[in-house]
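pinned: reference chain
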Amino acid sequence: MFGYIKPYKPELKVKEFDTYQAVYCGLCRQLGEAFGPFAKLTLSYDFTFLAMAAMALREEFCGFGKARCMANPLKKKVCAVPCGDLSFAAGCAMILFYHKLRDNIADTRGPKKLPYYLLLPFAAGARKKAVKRWPEVDGIFSQMMREQAELEAARTPSVDRAAEPTAAAMSRMVQLLAEDETQKRVLARFGYLLGRWIYLMDALDDLEDDRKSGGYNAFLLRLGDEPPTDEKLRELREYGKGVLNVTVAEMGVTYELLELRRYKSILDNILYLGLPHSAEEMLRREGKNGKKRALPEADGSLDGANQTGRQ
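pinned: its structure tokens
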């Protein structure tokens, strides 16, 4: 995915960070064992969150062990033991990587396509392996990319409509973690809101770059015929910040309905502190690789979503 769903480390206890790191390393190991060493380059916070949430919902617990890390082979690290949930997260990561790569090829012009073409054979092979076990996940992401492309081709100005394919895909994907119908309904709503939040974050993160390139961005299209001046972009970020607040608040209400058997304090940190902090960091950036800016003055606060979600 995009690396936005991560914990807020200053508020994690040492044992909580160590546990999160062990799941992160376990997923890295799972990617390498299932799809080869290059697959580890696709490791992200987002799929670590997916793996940890899946493991938190399960009654059975596979535990932790020690293994050597390719980055530091002389020292063993604590890792989550290979299990179905890590395998599922790794498979989802590789399937999405393939579809995003194809999307990047379609959206890129000239020689900039070359790196994507070079990665394509590896991504296609990894996807083929993953699809054998999780064909439904490939169907979900294929539909998401197809619907997203249609919306972009139509230059859809509605932010809500533009976020729908990602939201719907995440809703369908996390339902695969459910063990009963009640859990499935809760996960469907939680996944929908999480997917919506991810899309909104990415679109806001792309504002500056899309203004320069003329790329599709539903937030920019809200301006109509008005030029996308710095002042207008500031207003769009203010609007986007409010939408993110509401989405995280609704997500928090749904999240509290889940019956978590472990890792709740870590997942609480990610949802109530990590997501708002990621949004604050993103809103300070001028483009994904740009310098930091001061947050705009406003009455609303991203931290408000934290408090609302806990009520």
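why pinned: Residues 205 and 282 are 6 Å apart (CA to CA). The chain has a mean pLDDT of 89.
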